[in-house]
Write a structure and sequence with these properties.
CATH topology: Rossmann fold
Strand content: 15-25%
Shape: globular
Distance between the termini: 28 Å
Largest sheet: 8 strands, mixed
Number of helices: 7
CATH class: Alpha Beta
Radius of gyration: 17 Å
Low-confidence stretches: none
CATH superfamily: NAD(P)-binding Rossmann-like Domain
Order of helices and strands: EHEEEHEHEHEHHHE
Mean pLDDT: 97
Number of domains: 1
Number of strands: 8
Length: 255
Amino acid sequence: MFAELRDRVVLVTGGASGIGAGIVDAFLAEGATVVSADLSLPDGLSPARDDEWTVRLDVGDERAVEQALDAVTAAVGLIDVVVTAAGTSTMGFATETTSADWDRNLDVNAKGSFLVARGVARRLLDAGRTGRIVFISSQAGKNGYRGMTAYVASKHAVLGVTKTMAVELAPHGITVNAICPGIIETPMKHRERIEGGAIRGMTAEEVAAEDRSQVPLGRTGTTQDVAGVALFLASDLASYMTGQGLNVTGGMTMH
């Protein structure tokens, strides 16, 4: 479908599970060379499936990010597209949110996304190449949600970085956009239902039913729903789009 993505080098952080894994599969299906980066992967950069490489990466560690980007560039090639899907969340009302919870969310979701995008942008600028940066934010980057103070703050920060980098990199032909997923069925969402339900006096099943009831389209999302938008933003069809936060929420968020 997106022939221009064939043979492009794509880095996906958080690529071992959830939304990130869905995005890895989508780009591989389009013929891209994909590097999946995740904290759960073995050390070092290694070939995996056809056209896929894996690298262990803690996105919140600046030195580790730079080392990983250097290794990818040397072994695979200059990164044309980066999708920052690595993320974490903690549950807790604002009055009960700890400094550790705050730091964890901001370090991974906000700083981690920024460090990876900054590193890719620097290398594109040095090479005089255009490229695509796609942040994974959340509808929590546009709304407030009870019991998710630190997570919501981190995802709002991602949208701020998106807009600023878009302005700064536009003269160089590098587009910067964000995807704001809604309720997507992933292992992290399942954990959030258990933990979030516990602080609200609800079961995970009751939270899941509440989730579905809030979506105008009548269902929660899949990782493929998000991956399709990532492909679009990386393609030539989105060449005149930058600084945007695209909702993939089934209608829950409409701004």
